[in-house]
Amino acid sequence: MQIYLDYSATTPPRPEAIAAISASMADQWGNPSSLHQWGSRSATVLEQARSQVAGLLNAPAEAVVFTAGGTEADNLALMGVAQRYRVPQHLIISSVEHSAVEKPAQQLEALGWQVTRLPVNAQGRVSPSDLRQALRDNTVMVSIIYGQSEVGTLQPIEALGQIARDHGALFHTDAVQVAGRLPLDVQTLPVDLLSLSSHKIYGPQGAGALYVRPGVELVPLLGGGGQEFGLRSGTQAVPTLAGFGAAAALAAEEMATETPRLIGLRDRLFDQLASVAELSPTGDRYQRLPHHASFCVAADGEQVSGRTLVREMNLAGIGISAGAACRSGKLSPSPVLLAMGYSDRAASCGIRLTLGRHTTAADIDWVALVLRQVLSRTLATLALTPV
Question: What is the pLDDT of residues 361-374, one digit of tens each?
């Protein structure tokens, strides 16, 4: 039995997205900037995809800027705002950001920007009062991740965004893990910039989007032909974006039934593993992503690295992750768990199981059983290994 439980890393493209990609490659392959009929056909597909992605956010289509993924969207948000200023200013992020926000923040620091990283509690939540106290006269932007990919915690984005807005600072959120799983309405959310990724919602890899609230000015990262409203030059990957659009439209349509189903499966997994003393849940138990379960592994002083369990579960035909996929190939402790107060040793022992549209209750039951067996066997082996 093969069971994939790493949907926060990537999702299998759904048939409708693949069909949209194939149709575009076959019949709408023209350059969408060209004025002739071949270009017009591609431009129609492109704008349909833009409207479909915008629909997932309740946004105007012209507020959606297509990128090559969530990482580029995050970079465009931060660096696009920062490049408006000749003199370095102040930026606020959280201490549990994805590297696609943390790395640009570090680059800005090297250029003289002041960067404040807000602390989080043991569940990975930012306190609105901490944001309020961190604001300065020269704070021009706040960027807080909506749903943390490694531990699943949801941030109080409504409260945080309103505090930033009241101060006059722009507010960006990385909503890559939230999109398609929880409602996102930029007409009511106090956000100015919001990042999305196609391959997290059963679309193709290599596509993303940045919502830019009308009136917000960004400096483009790329010089060129001025595509994407002048914010992202380069001929658009129309077939890929067609798949993104199809996936976004279906995510919006199915969310009302799929999200409660995922929450039920997630809670079923937590319940079945609650009696396993060696597994300690990480993140906020209830203010968390609908599809996400995560744990640290330890027993009687013996701690099992997340990588070890990933390998053992893979041998059993089950795909899980050691923390965030973008870091799971590295041996260093998780910066997210460190920020939440875990020791260096414990921060190397995180695992993540994330569910999706193909996950069933039978899958959950089997995974819980196998994980118990794998953990027991692994700990027994460690106990017999000479120090």
Answer: 999 999 999 999 99
Helices (H), the chain: 15-27, 37-57, 70-82, 99-110, 128-134, 157-167, 238-273, 306-315, 335-339, 361-384
pTM over 0.90: yes
Task: Please write the tens of the pLDDT for every residue from 101-147.
Answer: 999 999 999 999 999 999 999 999 999 999 999 999 999 999 999 99
Residues 6+ positions from 382 with CB-CB distance below 8 Å: 302, 304
- As a whole number of angstroms, the distance between CA 140 and CA 138 comes to 6
349 is catalytic: no
Q: Which residue type occupies 306?
A: G
d(CA 115, CA 109): 6
Residues 222, 231: Cα–Cα separation, whole Å: 8
User: Which band of pLDDT confidence, cut at 50, 70 and 90, is reported for residue 385?
Assistant: low
Q: Catalytic: which of 68, 298, 299, 326?
A: 326
Q: Which of 315, 307, 299 is nearest to 352 (CA)?
A: 307
Q: Which two tokens stand for residue 44?
A: 């129609």
